[in-house]
Fold:
Amino acid sequence: MTYKEQIDNGRVPQHIAIIMDGNGRWAKKQGSIRLVGHKFGVGSVRRVTQAAAEVGVKFLTLYVFSTENWDRPAAEVQGLMSLLGATIDSELADLMKNNVRLQMVGDGRLPSALRDKMLKSVELTKNNTGITLVLALSYSGRWDITEAVRNIAKQVKNGEINPEDITADTVANALPMSVAPDPELIIRTSGELRISNFLLWQAAYSELYFTDTLWPDFDEEQLCKAIVDYQHRQRRFGKTSEQVEK
Structure:
């Protein structure tokens, strides 16, 4: 029986977020440069998005490029930006055909042509009603929270809210990543055991799943395996097992 056949369709996580790691190591194993791994990783994005939509996931967030990734070698960064632009060009028709809604969250530090292309794609897909694909691009959890603080500070300064009225919901709604609900499941590929500044606020009660599989090798069955593992866990949110079972 495949992992897909083992999924309980009534308990599929609404939002899955993925730290796509291992492209460089995959390329090195093939005797190629890192950018080759990133190119093959695009295929995994396509497969996983389709698989997530098929099993009923409503939101899929992919950690594409972190704010810290700007410190990588200039040639690799430039190659990644070019690859992202080419990927949007080649995939937009399929996004429309498959009813995928695209969102982008990040600090905007992108080449102007790529930023314009991304924003145009977000606009073109905004009325699609299928899975929402959120690209975390030039994103970090600390940036996300910092932006929320800035937004709330402006509201306080303008007299729109009193400091004593600020709640956790106030912060959550001020986050740029508020375009999606908190993820029930966060997956990291490649065997690294950390979340690398990703969704720091939203991950408070997310289930974490780590796999040694490198991102270019991550496919539909790997995704379904993670979902099945998630479905075997008990989510307690600070309560006891007995309380949850009641």
